[in-house]
Records
---
Amino acid sequence: MPELPEVETIRRGLEQLVCGKIIKTVDVLVPNMVTPNVDIFSKILEGQMINNVRRRGKYLIFELDAYLLISHLRMEGKYLLFTDEVPQNKHFHVFFKLDTDTILVYQDVRKFGTFEVILKADEKAFFKQKKLGPEPTPEQFDLDGFINKLLCSSKMIKSHLLDQTLVSGLGNIYVDEVLWASYIHPEQLSRTLTIEQMKQIHYQIIRILKMAVEKRGATIRTYRNALGEDGIMQNYLNVYGKTGQCCLRCNTVINKIKVGGRGTHFCPKCQIKQ
DNA sequence: TTTACTGTTGCAGT
DNA sequence: AACTGCAACAGTAA
């Protein structure tokens, strides 16, 4: 599911459902998803209260008493809350038993998701080590810093926006949407963009991610029913998944190529490489 | 039946 | 140092 708008939607759901609850027990069925090892992980979490659920980029942060539980959903991670019996499912990997006989379940078909417990004091260092860029808001996302980093890089703009160092939260869907909205070819090198183009990308990143949060994310490919999975942003996409359809601006057929190993949708007439 | 694809990130290799 | 390709995994579609 998760780019920033989907993660934010899940965060809002979790905030309502688990804030103020105490983690009674933790069961991890896939040990290599958690850091440090399972025993320490479970031992630290048991007895802690979930005081708050925050988000940074695509990371979910459960604020506990002395620690933070940092959860990344990667490609297919989901949270489900059960109030009685938990059904059998081979993709349920982590179980958090909460105080009111409710169980928070982490489901992940591909087992790419990660959990890390860190000390509250180490949060800053954690995200610095990840080289995580600013949040995509007018307050946090500095235009001059963005321009300076672009001018220093010979990466293709799409790959550059995906690497989370310029700004956090973009993934494959919203990068394609941002570049279409900005009239930029995904393979254009960062340093060859004009300042006006950089400003446009900066503006569109903020606008599109804000809109996607308001639409509660995009639910494409399968699934429903998890926390916050009833998004409607898929109805507002202009290029992602539109291969073979006509560009809404110029009627040219949308093309799909590979850029840095990722499927990439663009309009070959609107988005010209300079 | 194979092969390619999938909303991500980190690491090995150049 | 900066960048690329691939692996982690499981399912689906062609």
Note: Chain A is about 25% helix and 20% strand.
---
Amino acid sequence: MTWDLTAPVWEVAPTLLGAVLSHGPVSVRLVEVEAYDGGNDPASHAYRGLTSRNAVMFGPPGHLYVYFTYGMHWAANIACGPDGTASGVLLRAGEVVAGVEVAHSRRGRSTLRDLARGPGRLTQALGIDGSLGGAAVLTGGPVRLSPGVAPARIEAGPRVGVSVAADVPWRFWITGDPHVSAYRRSPRAVSPTAATSRGSTG
DNA sequence: ACAAGGATTCACT
DNA sequence: GTGAATCCTTGTA
């Protein structure tokens, strides 16, 4: 028994916390995720419809949507919703629970805590890049998602780095976990008034 | 074919 | 805590 990824993405996202994502020798326990609701969500890459980049999100759930951003970083999402619905969950941060040495060698100079703390760092630690886009994570491919230790407590708050709909509390993290990335509101975010919560301090 | 923007990270102070 | 670097994707002509 695994996950029902066809449920609304904001319900699926928190259930991924504590799960373990593995690629080769490296495994990461997810501690922070964000939900994106496709066509209904102005912050989603799929908001404007199907393109060659976001096509994976429109397909069946359980596949990896990997995209390149800021000219240097890869970010990984798990496509959710039934086939034809373009929702997804962005994997923002995790704790490396296996293959620490490999992850560390990929990350170069980095503390244990920072190995997968942040979307770009997470993909780098796992060795995930665009070539794995579209890979299924629940059916025994190179990248696998498996159940882990359920988190004791979960918090929700505004999403990070999103310039629109930043007030929707669709960022989920494990309360008090040191591997959650530092909260940093998008420099392009509109209203500076609503930001109160802080991710890493718990 | 061209121009604009981005779901970030790193090094330095 | 703050500033700078990077190139791919998308929409429009």
Note: The helical segments of chain A are 9-15, 55-58, 100-107, 119-126.
